[in-house]
Amino acid sequence: MIPESFGYSAPSSLIDAYALLEQHGDDAKILAGGHSLIPMMKLRFASPTHLIDINKIPNLSYIKEEDGYLKIGAMTREVDLEESEVIRHKYPIFTDASKLIADPQVRNFGTIGGNIAHGDAANDHPAVMLALGAEVVISSAAGDRTVGIDDFFFGFYTTAVQHGEILTEIRIPSLGPRTGSAYHKLERKVGDYATAGVAVVIGLNEDGSCSKVGIGLTNVNPTPIRAARSEQILLGTTMSESDVAQAAQYAAEDCSPSDDLRGSVEFKKDMIRVITKRMINKAIQRTKL
Questions:
Q1: What is the largest CA-CA distance in the chain?
Q2: E strand or H helix at 253
Q3: What are the structural domains of the chain?
Q4: Cα–Cα distances in Å, from 128 out to 183, 186, 198, 263, 270?
Q5: Bridge-partner residues for 181, per DSSP?
Q6: For 70-108, what is each residue's pLDDT tens digit?
């Protein structure tokens, strides 16, 4: 199929983009990498009347550590995450996720901001952001506002980004020296959406007990989901084998997958249990690197 007809603009500044959003109303859509929006338009699951292409707007692509945060511009490409030395050495969870996203052609143009703003629980970065405790900067003509990731995903393809607003930056609280992170997803073939995926961040106190834990799950709920009970059972413990097994079991119990061509509900829940256990242990191992 082909999309319905639509208008197109490529503003050179955020101010111009805000004006276009106001001019074209609720049916206008922001175009970043386009790898989520364009396929939906081809299938006519989305039919915006106007596309506002923000690729020409400067200063929206960067990876930097500043003011106690890792700051990532919304137009940062997946390939930039793959190639960043800061990411590779301090935030390997992004490297884990990026190399599992689609194929090199998609990663060369797909953006992290678009991945998150799309609001799809099947995308990989939402679970990563939940595990990392990210904040999202949303900008408009009225200024910037910051939304915690737990308050960002409202529902199916629905986020905190409102009409007239653009997601411009992701902020990750800097990870301590005894922190490890990991992400993995089960997929039917290379580049597929996840059958089930798990992102884990673990921080350790000097005595080896768990000082920080974040666990996000991919494509096993209508919206991106935090495995809250799993986090609670690990926090403050030495993360014994039985603690880790219980956390993995809670993750399996608390997710809500659906039956589809990727597997049954029971299969997906069991995969969440298995992957959660593995990613917790992998994150713990990485705290020692």
A1: 62
A2: helix 241-254
A3: 7-53 (3.30.43.10), 63-173 (3.30.465.10), 179-286 (3.30.390.50)
A4: 7, 15, 8, 23, 20
A5: 201
A6: 999 999 998 999 889 999 999 999 999 988 886 667 676
